[in-house]
Amino acid sequence: MYAAAHVHFINALENNTFNEFTRLLNAANAANDIKSLKEMYVDFLVRENCVYSLDDEKKFLRLFANDETVQTQAELEDIAKELLCVCVTLGENPLIRYHRPLDIKETINRRIPEQLAKAVQSELDNFCATNPEYPPPRDPPLPSGTLIILDRTIDPISPFLHEFTYQAMVADLLEVEEIPTGLKYEYKYTQEDGTTQDQEVTLVETDPVYCTIRHMHIANTTEKLISDFNAFLDENQISSSSGPTTAASLSDMKNMISNLPQYQEMKSRFSAHMNIASECMSEFKSQNLEEIGLLEQDMACGETPEGEKPKNLVEALTPILDDPLTSQMVKTRLILLWIATSDAVDPEDLETLLAVARLEQEYKDAIENIKLLGVQLSKSANKLGKKMKKGLKKKTNPQQEVPFDLSRYVPVVKRIVEGHIDGTIDQSLFPNNIRNVKQRNTRKNTEEAVKEVPKLRVYKTQWHKKSSKGTNAAPKPPSGPPIIIFIVGGMTYSEIRSAYEIAETFDREVYIGSTHIITPDKFVTDLGKLDKKIPPPKGLIPPYTGSIHKSNSVPGGGQQALPPRTTSSVPNSNSKGHHHKLLGKW
């Protein structure tokens, strides 16, 4: 069917895998049909300009579950190879900073960030050994960036909170489908004749309206939609012979949009976000989220909007948990948040809340399993982690006003990165000494490695450098080296938003990624599975079953030769990770 093939792999292959692949090609007399073999180092998803994902939600279960059969080191080495892809794509050989918790004697695996940091450093050292010119020079010159490795235990609060910014609210409250490039949502649209029609919208980077409002509080979102819609009408000199000439509400927008058939694309975008914002507000009211969200923020922040310590939290939670209109999931999130924010959980209070909530077993399992993330369920808990909490507390800046009482909590990830930038981070909790330790051991086989594997020219990709004033304007150079954040076990939409805020505040390149993106409901569901046996991962690539019948010789004798293997990584022979990835992932 085709004259020849170029075979590109999304990540480096293990040597034994490549050798077997070569053997099969030669045995099938297919060497002449293969024009190139290249390892691309793109084994991750780019979700947004500043956001990447390894798209592997099962990693949370395999790394944090109470299952002794899971090979933690193999899982981490698998992640390390994918993080190497991120670094290579960015053209960075970063310093690595990681979280080293004080309470490492807990029953859960609290050394995940440190173990992963060592594995990533090993991958980087091997890559640099075979690519002496890596990393490529930056223009303008900047010091090496930093890779900050954390895991989900760093902040057990964010995953349970109701977030009231547009993107997070959509993912939490509406039935959306996660796709590789964003979110997909289906809704019913009322047409001009009064009939309804199913509509599908994708919330992705190519939608300028979505990119403008995704991190706005829902109250500001509706105002922004109306403002931008009126600006669109004004720019295109659109007027109406009957009715208002500007929109003052989402209802006005709905009526005016139906009279704009010639502006189909923008009409579709504004209409979609208008409907989505309306449905979010409808869920906000029907689920009593104003009262629930305020209580959540009091627990998460440890203070009320007036700055006082919240009192009688059990009494405040009881009527909400007893309300039959409060869903089992929301009840579970509230109890988990109460546990995660308590210095000491009184067993009698917990028993009272559980009795009032009347939870089904799957939700009780999630509450019981929170201890696997280091959150204790009794007064006798180890409290050595308090030093970390105190070190991350930030003094309130009176000039920084919090515009909404429902959005006071600052994710721990944001505080850590801010501390890294301004130099106030606790070095004992977040050391960056991996490179110094590893470089005494890594390059002993450098000459052999360079001879064995050809070099790969690295092309740097910048995801987020888009001009805010049009595509023709040159991007502003960053004020410092880039920061790459990675969270093992899932990242929240509030943490994603924080990365954008840090990038804007400090004028830095900030990239945030994780094994996957989590929503509160998904996180609670996964928590409930942590005490269950983890099924082994299924291979996505079927074994080769074809018959080999062609001659492997060439005219005149001799063996066919495949084209050179274009790669630049020395595989880790000790890795037992799973490399069955779909090529369509990228």
Automatic annotation (TrEMBL):
It comes from Rhizopus stolonifer. InterPro entries: Sec-1-like_dom3a (IPR043127), Sec1-like (IPR001619), Sec1-like_dom2 (IPR027482), Sec1-like_sf (IPR036045). Belongs to the STXBP/unc-18/SEC1 family. Signal peptide: none annotated. One of its GO terms (biological process) is vesicle-mediated transport. Residues 546-586 are annotated as: Disordered. It holds the Pfam family Sec1. SUPFAM superfamilies: Sec1/munc18-like (SM) proteins. The gene is SEC1_2. PANTHER family: VESICLE PROTEIN SORTING-ASSOCIATED. Residues 576-586 have a biased composition (Basic residues). This is Vacuolar sorting protein VPS33/slp1. Residues 565-575 have a biased composition (Polar residues). It comes from the Eukaryota.
